[in-house]
Amino acid sequence: MPDSGVGSSVRRREDQRFLTGVGKYVDDINRADQVWAVFVRSPHAHAVVKSIDSTAAVAAPGVVAIFTGADMAADSVGSLPCGWTVVDRHGNPHKGPPHFPLVRDKVRYVGDHVAVVIAETRQQAQDAAELVEVDYEDLAPVVNPAGALSNDAPQLHEEAPGNLCFDWELGDQAAVDDAISNASHVATLKLVNNRLIPNAMEPRSALAEYEPGTGNYILHSTSQNPHLLRLILCAFVLGLPEHKVRVIAPDVGGGFGSKIYCYAEETVCTWAAKKVGRPIKWTADRSESFLADAHGRDHVTEVKLALDANGKFTALKVDTIANMGAYLSNFASCVPTYLYATLLAGQYTTPVIYANVKAVFTNTAPVDAYRGAGRPEATYLLERIVEVAARETGIDPAELRMRNFIPPDAFPYATPVALTYDTGNYGIAMDKALEMIDYKGFAERKRQSAAKGKLRGIGFSAYIEACGIAPSAVVGSLGAGVGLWESAQVRFNATGSVSVFTGSHSHGQGHETTFAQLTAEKLGIPYENIEIVHGDTGSIPMGMGTYGSRSLAVGGSAIIRACDKVIEKGRKIAAHLMEASVEDVEFDGGQYKVAGTDKSKTIAEIAFTAYVPHNYPEDVEPGLDETAFYDPLNFTYPAGTHIAEVEIDPETGVTEIVDWVAVDDFGKVINPMIVEGQVHGGVAQGVGQALLEGCVYDPETGQLLTGSYMDYCMPRADNLPLLKVATTETACTHNPLGVKGCGEAGAIAAPAALMNAITNALGCEIDMPATPEKVWRAAQARGAQAAE
Amino acid sequence: MPSVSMKVNGKQVSAEVEPRTLLVSFLRENLRLTGTHVGCDTSQCGSCVVHVNGKSVKACSMLAIQANDTEVTTIEGLAVNGELHPMQAAFREHHGLQCGFCTPGMVMSAVDLLQENPKPSETEIRDWLEGNICRCTGYQNIVKAIQAAADEMGG
Ligand code: FES
Ligand code: FES
Fold this sequence. Notes:
Largest sheet of chain A: 7 strands, mixed
Number of helices of chain A: 20
Enzyme class (chain B): oxidoreductase
Mean pLDDT of chain B: 97
Helix content of chain B: 25-40%
Keywords (chain B): 2Fe-2S, Iron, Iron-sulfur, Metal-binding, Oxidoreductase
Strand order of the largest sheet of chain B: 2-1-5-3-4
Shape of chain B: globular
CATH superfamily of the largest domain in chain B: Beta-grasp domain
Number of strands of chain B: 5
Radius of gyration of chain A: 27 Å
Distance between the termini of chain A: 67 Å
CATH topology of the largest domain in chain A: Aldehyde Oxidoreductase, domain 3
Shape of chain A: globular
InterPro entries (chain B): 2Fe-2S-bd, 2Fe-2S-bd_dom_sf, 2Fe-2S_ferredoxin-like_sf, 2Fe-2S_ferredoxin-type, Beta-grasp_dom_sf, Diverse_Oxidoreductases
Structural class of chain B: alpha+beta
Helix content of chain A: 25-40%
Low-confidence stretches of chain B: none
CATH class of the largest domain in chain B: Alpha Beta
Order of helices and strands of chain B: EEHEEEHHHH
Low-confidence stretches of chain A: none
Mean pLDDT of chain A: 96
Number of helices of chain B: 5
Strand content of chain A: 15-25%
Domain 2Fe-2S ferredoxin-type (chain B): 2-78
Oligomer: heterodimer
Radius of gyration of chain B: 15 Å
Bound molecules: FE2/S2 (inorganic) cluster
Pfam family, one (chain B): Fer2
Strand order of the largest sheet of chain A: 3-5-1-12-9-10-11
Number of strands of chain A: 28
CATH superfamily of the largest domain in chain A: Aldehyde oxidase/xanthine dehydrogenase, a/b hammerhead
């Protein structure tokens, strides 16, 4: 196997520029005559905007223009759309009140966009923004989703009475109720899946330009999804034809979901660039990121798990209230529904499942997909309730899981919540994880901890994920407004190098390396001769971007399909050159060979001929350049077991993670080093959710209390343990690569593993984040109980 | 407007700046050295770490005029004649970066760590990185890279 082949840990080619400081992130790009935008944001959670007086601000030094919602309305700028229509349990579409890029009547969360100030420098724009006088009439806010449903709650939108966005269900309620009443044991739990702020390290940024000569717009954006951003901007908000707008997402410093969406800021800058006739730059500072990036999670759930006398799960019932924030973000509605409830079977054979989800508007920032999106929420509640059931029935938690795993010979396996898992082997991942953590030795380790006055706990998370959301026809029937294919163009250049244009977008995942490995192996040409181009609607045919761990499974498959087309076309040219029939020409390792002879041509020679077609088959077009669109047949289903072991000091409430094993099945692995890095990063975010992170709004005023790194606790190097990572492999059966996706696994698995370990140590339930204070209180209460 | 002058990556530079101009803005906007990043506005994330007179400093917490007459090294000045510094090479070898945004600050902090403590333990490395946030890597490979660089640099 060559060093750069599939399965080898090729060092990343993108690192050279990142390590030497010459990467090009949006904020690094400047235009000679650019001006700066700064947004006037609402300091109130809920208020009527009575008037906006810009007189003083307009006169401030350097100010070029100030715009408000009224200016955008005068230009008929539309509202930011939600791209997935969820139909509620009564057959009605969800409530989607308008979300204007600059508010028109009311502000609905702290940080909402009131006006934009454009000035020669950023500092001048900031200074002037402070001079914009807005007369607000304060209204009572509501930030708690359960509270928003109460009869006397303040109303956010006329279009959504009772603040209810939708009341949705999945599964057979009667069958579930029946199984619960006949169960030999029912475990119940109430839990909160805490709201998170994504915090990609690069703040969002936009550089919008308008070219009067052509009427074209160019938008540089920190986007995970440039084609979709263009589509939304053009079709839904600005009313422009797509060929007039080019969106470029260059190097992007992390996304984790928060950079999928079309936000107010880039919309306003694009629109205003034409108005002021100069390029407009906007870069969020971190405080703005906290206020106005789409947040994640935020569920309150009640769950019941029914078991028979043998510990087999007989039913699962889930009631969730999901906080949507003040407006529906682009994909907000599908997160607590089709990306959540459909995963509630987990790795288990639970025969009947019912989920009810109420989605609610509150005076908080909009919530949308964040690393894992819906799947972490599903895994968290399922793995927590399984742990409760184990504790209550006295069955070992590993054993209880094993008893209920879908057996390896049961695939493809149709769950009671709409999905069909193609393949998996959950028992071997669990076995391997148990061995790696030395589960047998745990009791002894617990004794040793107890001897030191410490509480030791172990926690399991046997998670499942659904990656590469698909197929388009199915998601369309469930309400998606877009197709979920991916495109790729594979272009041989005349002298044998290859340019691959992919609609996937890399913002840390290392596609330039992985995709080149893939292409090199498929075409049998040197890795160094391949470039991967992504992130520019001006050069890539079409695309759907990167989220939901879809890049390799969907984007990589599109590349393989385009390579297949290239190889097929090359076969005709090779047959002509070698005077053989097409059927007799085989392709292997970059060579076309005539079967049974020693005649051969390299694909590079064929490429040259395709561009210099002096001796060429009559019915074949010149050029070797093919495009493929790939629409997957199903989701892929990565799965695995993570086990966390913790030691808690009851005197301080500090939880130390003493060991962590992660055994994941990602299907075929292209670059093990990159995959391992993805696991590390995902686990870190999951650990952050479980131990440290939590977005808090003041319940009375709706102010964001965790609005900076001083208050929002991000995981730092000393919060994380060394992870022991391993993989098992069942190849995905329905994509040409056998790959499943790995980016979200850690964030899905980790919170449950860690919270199960903590609650195992404490012997009682607590909610995330398990801060020292919360853990200390629980440990003290337990100590008091023991003393009684 | 006051003028500042300093040596940045071995080159003497000077300019007139508003008194409130931060060192990071001066580097990024005046000198177009965009390798030094801005990740926060509370001096918590470490994306902006550079060396001032050989010591690591958060360039967002220092005014450009405070750096008058100093020698500043940014990530752009670390590689010599196109050869990566051993710390940069170790980050690459051990996959200590993903999106690359925190990376310049991480590398500059790590280089300073080894100047202070040429053979740090894992715990000492993790403690030192308290001022740098990486959202992508989970730090494991950053720690590995720094350990490897320490070995390489003969600590
Ligand atoms: S930008 Fe300097 S510490 Fe965050
Ligand atoms: S590599 Fe992305 S923040 Fe560190």
